[in-house]
Amino acid sequence: MTTRTVDTTQELAAFLRTRRERLDPEDFGLPSRRQHRRTPGLRREEVAELAGVSIDYIVRLEQARGLRPSVDVVEALAGALRLAPDERAYLFNLTQQRPRNAGKPATAAAPPLAGLVADLSPLPAMLMNHRYDILAWNGEMALLLLLDFDTLPPSQRNAMWLCLMHPEMREFYVDRERVVREGIAHLRAAWAAHPEDQVLTDRIADFTTRDEDFARLWAERDIKVNGRGRKLLRHPDAGEIAVHFEVLVPLEDPDQRLVIYRAADDGSQAALDRLFAR
């Protein structure tokens, strides 16, 4: 058997049938009446009642008759069928809809990722969420940025806040205009992807009010998600250091972003070696 290009209407129909048929009526407080059931699992009318839609609607979906469920219906079907998170995401992809709430933003580092950040030494590394909140970091990152993150209140452990508001960080990047511009372009993409995140919306409003550069660049509406790049740092002890950065998104924790810095040239590597040796 060969698998052809996905026909989303047919795949949606088959997926809904298989998810319905695997369910045990007794788990829903329904009598099994197995001797009266010609197919396993829940009946279509039972799924329809659980999802709050008509039986005809379920029939048409399972017969691949070209329906495109709304976000509310997809949410209701996912709940009625007790879909696991990966299955729920698959259902949204098949219906070409996007969940209204993709999940609460990470406010603490997942323990395995925090351990990974520490294990990446001597490479400077940190963990952030989509807001640029810094959730974990290793000693090399603290030394490179000259910041003891533990002494900062949580509201200030944010890469964009530090770049805009922290007095020692304002001159830290040699090409500050580009760094801020790219950071804002990334932040705007995150803002659109998380419209329910009021904390992020409030933070952007605060930046716009307090920083003229941010307000000017935000109004340009540039969009760019930076997964890798180069920065030139002006370190007071080690001099200028060029670094490459890489941003990785873990499958298990997609709201957390692992950021790793590496020296971009031999001179920068020597500067980092001297800095970390001290």
From TrEMBL:
SUPFAM superfamilies: lambda repressor-like DNA-binding domains. It comes from Streptomyces fildesensis. InterPro entries: Cro/C1-type_HTH, Lambda_DNA-bd_dom_sf, MLTR_LBD. SMART domains: HTH_XRE (SM00530). It comes from the Bacteria. Gene3D superfamilies: 3.30.450.180, lambda repressor-like DNA-binding domains. Residues 41-88 form the HTH cro/C1-type domain. This is Helix-turn-helix transcriptional regulator. PROSITE patterns: HTH_CROC1 (PS50943).
